[in-house]
Amino acid sequence: METNGIKTGYCPGEHRCMECGEPLGEYGRSDRKFCSPHCKDGYNNRKRHYLRGVRMRVETALSRNHSILERLLEEGRTSAQLADLVQMGFKTDYVSSFRKAGGRDVVWCYDIKYVLTPTKVMRIERLSSVL
Ligand SMILES: [Zn+2]
Q1: What is the pLDDT of residues 39-84, one digit of tens each?
Q2: CB of 34 within 8 A of CB of 43?
Q3: Sheet holding 112-116, edge to edge
Q4: Which end of the chain is more exposed for a tag (fewer CB within 10 A), N or C?
Q5: How many Å lie between the centroid of ligand 1 and the Cα of residue 34?
Q6: What pTM did the predictor assign?
Q7: What is the DSSP letter of 24?
Q8: By the 8 A CB rule, do 125 and 112 touch?
Q9: What is the whole-number distance in angstroms between the Cα of residue 55 and the centre of ligand 1?
Q10: What does the alpha-carbon distance between residue 54 and residue 51 come to, in Å, rounded to a whole number?
Q11: How far is the CA of 93 from the centre of ligand 1 (A)?
Q12: How far, in Å, is the centroid of ligand 1 from the Cα of 38?
């Protein structure tokens, strides 16, 4: 299916290929999504590539956050101004776990836990004492 020259993908009612948008015709299974193995491979490769990119961006952001928090702990610090951390590349929207506790936002970055306020990261502590 094309809208303003852009293929909009699968539309079950019209039975068109999810990759190229061509009509699937009346042959084959009724739940067929692709007109050919080539289109199926192309779609799946693109999807896999996209998902790998998403995972890499999240992993990179989490890893950077963890390094920054770890550095603070090594310096004996348990809090920092959020603006300073953001300047260092810290991204508050990437966390490995989150919960509200006592009205505060408690955040985990892997094994490091902290309280996030609008202006500060505080009560930074490593949960495991293995290192
Ligand atoms: Zn196709």
Answers
A1: 999 999 999 999 999 999 999 999 999 999 999 999 999 999 999 9
A2: yes
A3: 80-81, 120-126, 112-116, 104-109, 97-101
A4: C
A5: 5
A6: 0.74
A7: -
A8: yes
A9: 27
A10: 5
A11: 38
A12: 7
Shortest CA distance to 94 belongs to which of 69, 58, 125, 53? Answer: 58
Cβ contact 99:86 at 8 Å = no
Domain range list for the chain: 36-126
Residue with tokens 């505060």: 104
Q: Are 11 and 2 in contact (CB under 8 A)?
A: no
Dist. CA 21 → ligand 1 center (Å) = 6
Tell me how many degrees the CA angle 42-30-15 measures, rounded to the nearest 5: 60
pLDDT in tens, 12-45: 456 899 999 999 887 778 889 999 999 999 999 9
Rounded distance between C-alpha atoms, residue 122 and residue 131, angstroms? 21
Q: Are 47 and 56 in contact (CB under 8 A)?
A: no
Cβ atoms within 10 Å, residue 114: 23
Give the count of beta carbons closer than 10 Å to the beta carbon of residue 35: 19
